[in-house]
Amino acid sequence: MSDDDAGRSPYTLQHEDDETRHAFWADTVADRVEERVADRDDDEKNPDVVIKGGISPSGVPHLGNVNEIMRGYFVAEVLRDRGYEVRQVFTADDRDPLRKLPRTLCNLDGELVDLGEVDAGALGRNLGHPYTDIPDPFGCCDSYGDHFSQIIRDSADAVDVPIDMVSTTDLYEDGEFDDVTRHVLENRDRAREILAEYQDKVNEDYVPFNPVCENCGKITETVTSVDVGSEERRSSDSQAEREASRETGDVTPTVDYRCTDLDAGDRTIEGCGHEGTATLREGKMPWRFEWPAQWQVLGVDFEPFGKDHAEGSWPSGDDVARNVLEIEPPVPMVYEWFTLDGEPFSSSEGNVILVSDVLELLEPEVLRYFFAKDPSRARDFSIERLDQLVDEFDRFEAIYFDEVEEATEDERAFAERVYPFVVEDPREERIRLPYTFAAVLGMTDDPDLREEIARREGHIPDDAPEWAVEDALARVERARNWARRTENEFDYELKRTAIPDHEFDAATEAALAELANFIEEGHGAEEIQGEIYETAKRHDVAVGEFFGAGYRLFFDEEQGPQLGPFLAKVDREFVVARLRRER
Fold first, then answer.
1. CA distance 288 to 268
2. CATH code for the part of the protein at 506-580
3. Domain formed by 3-177+288-344, architecture
4. pLDDT per residue over 176-192, tens digit each?
5. Taking each helix axis from N to C terminus, what angle separates 178-186 and 287-298, rounded to the nearest 10 degrees?
6. What is the pTM of this model?
7. Which DSSP category does 321 fall into?
8. Average pLDDT over residues 224-243
9. I need a labelling partner for 378 at 20 to 30 A (CA). Which of 8, 218, 385, 576 fits?
10. What PROSITE patterns does its record include (predicted)?
11. What is the fold of 381-486?
């Protein structure tokens, strides 16, 4: 990377004057990753491209956390398309201490639960302990940290993204972090000097290592002395000899510590006061050193992250990487957070949705499309307006298959480039029922009726292959779930098997019979809607009451969807018989 690149804003989608413009943002990022790879020394060990994301197990892993997985995935796919071998890793920072009790947790079935529904004591007794040392409150995984990581794996699997989940605890305990941790401690004066530029309360006694207290199991930040061994001995040792010395315990670096209180925001987690000694595998580096250490140990070439890191952790991470670890930081990319129904994601406030929940409402390819859009723009993921996102995807897909005449040049370029990354097996014969139409079909449980109406309305061609019909009708259940979740205008159930209880006066009964005759003649949606008004007026029935009679007969409700268009979609024989109260 050039000196100019070193000063580049991490908002990597800000174009330079001489930069190639792409239809897809991931191509722009991939260009920069290729530049980095081309600058590698021939003797560097890792021939592959490594893309990383990461998360701390501090809350429910919700849809917003999938940002790093999906942003990394698209860049990985572009690079694979260019012939590179790519490994996409995702780190769980599970040696971090639990600093406060979450209000909401998530089981492995993707269901949100309150603390009262699990063994909350498993968490409450272990404040200040690393996540991987805390029992799983659900009792299904080896630890709370493992439980959290499994949900991330499941989320990635659900959107068909292959990630290698890496436990930070494992990196410490397996010795992968030994060399980089020792290097940081050897250069702790320089580390302290750099950190002081980004963080207050860095005094002359600061040591960038947090041991795990052998007495109480909590993380402590008070190191009283450091012994990293003989510099002369280590510099003369071969790599094999250094590894052997670790195994035998010879010249093992250690720190002495005192277990003191741990700051946890507006509260304090009390230390036990124990004084002891810890090896480098019995603790962790603070986050601002641990993140760059991950880059070094895992050989990271590219990492996307939220804008909160761009303003805090990234500048210090870049500085630590260059001036303490003496490595080149990876290519960065900042993405904008998106909101959920106009509000920030918040586990404590209950404003979260899980990937598993979303995939009950729309197809995985629609969700992948959402993440394929420009990450430098703030967006809202609206459950209320999910039909708009699905319609947008359907148009995007139709543009790819050259089925939209008025598409712009930019729309065509984007669809041509991105669609194969969003849909694994593009097939022109696919059928997409309009989402709100699918919600209308969801008012009935009868699968044959759903298909009959879809065919009659022209959404399923006579010659459609069976797989396409099945895929098309699968959207009905998702749209029905959406209607029920949002309690919108489609959240009604057609009472087809039996006539709901009702009691109408003579004028209303006569008006219903007349409306039945009109529909039996064969008329369209707008004509039926207009006739409902006119029939009510002719029989001196209040229009609202007449609509209410229709809703009672068909839904056993006092209100419902726009009645005329709905009745036009349901099979005519049934509608006529129901209006006549015959079945």
1. 21
2. 1.10.10.350
3. 3-Layer(aba) Sandwich (3.40)
4. 999 999 999 999 999 99
5. 130
6. 0.87
7. I
8. 60
9. 8
10. AA_TRNA_LIGASE_I
11. Arc Repressor Mutant, subunit A (1.10.10)
